[in-house]
Amino acid sequence: MSKEILVTGGAGFIGSHVTRLLLDQGFGVTVVDNLSHGNKESLDPRTKFEQVDLLDQEGLEKVLPGHDAVIHMASLIEVGESVERPIEFTQNNIVGTVSLLEAMKNTNVKKIIFSSSACVYGVPKKLPIMEDAPLGEQENPYGITKVTMEQFCMFYHRRNNFDVTILRYFNPYGPGELHQPETHAIPNFIRAALNKNPLPLFWKGEQIRDFIYIDDLVSAHILPLNLGGLHIFNVGTEVGVKVTDVIRKISEILGYEVEIEDKGERKGDVPSLVASSEKIKKELGWEAKIDLDEGLKRTIDFYRHHPSST
Ligand SMILES: NC(=O)c1ccc[n+]([C@@H]2O[C@H](COP(=O)([O-])OP(=O)(O)OC[C@H]3O[C@@H](n4cnc5c(N)ncnc54)[C@H](O)[C@@H]3O)[C@@H](O)[C@H]2O)c1
After folding, report:
1. Which whole-number Å values give the CA distances from 114 to 7, 9, 74, 86, 146, in the listed order?
2. Which atom of ligand 1 is nearest to the CA of 179?
3. Which of 113, 153, 234, 288 is spaced 20 to 30 A from 120 at the CA atom?
4. What kind of fold does domain 4-173+212-235 have according to CATH?
């Protein structure tokens, strides 16, 4: 019988892609989302949908029975908002995660794959970053919630025998990214460029990032469904790219250049983040396949054909 997977945050950018891949591979999928940010239209019609908030433990306990695993992606994600509204982020992300873990314990669903972030490393001392690098100081409440959510998942592994896989994403991008507000570089550059508006650029584009195309990112969620125990994996391409080079590539694809709007420095931005993905390659046989040029072409194509999203 096919496995049943519950995806929290499945109506969001990454969750809707993960859901589609799971369905294509024959899994049954239930999405739990409160629609605070995601939208129902992005859900594949084959999905079972439950509009439940993570904080509603009773509601979760009604939906969870019969599932083999949870992929936990529901979260508030906007760093700037987390600085303005730390209580809301703590409540939603940390208390919400504990509510989910308790509901899983009570319904005997004991496998979780958790969406974490490279931000847990703070300012890395060494590149590429390995999973055993020390976690760094956090410059914003969003980062603190990610570190704490990881800690709670690990606690339920130790205390309640949960199978836990923590995936630390580097910089995902791709079709369907429609955050409100959008603070990520690639969608903002592409939308501005298509509209021939100035491209908003921080730090003169000197930061180095490991941009991972959405299809590669989501494929990393499948193999951990067969893992027992506790695992932590980086999910990145191992290629560090300067933000100015992303702009150059976008201009090359579009065939024209657009003015830059110098936004100065943005507090809390780390100069360089590049993953070592040796561990996930070796242990799961996963690796990124789509390079930045191809990923940008596909992403530009999406925004071109969805003018309302620009
Ligand atoms: N997008 C990135 O660049 C990035 C990078 C690293 C890690 N992540 C992590 O990946 C996950 C998904 O990110 P995304 O970009 O798809 O975000 P998103 O905002 O598009 O999706 C998150 C979804 O979670 C839902 N949600 C939030 N709080 C909820 C709650 N209390 N109950 C039920 N549903 C709730 C929202 O409605 C939304 O549909 C998050 O955990 C995020 O921290 C994202």
Report:
1. 10, 11, 9, 21, 10
2. 20
3. 288
4. Rossmann fold (3.40.50)
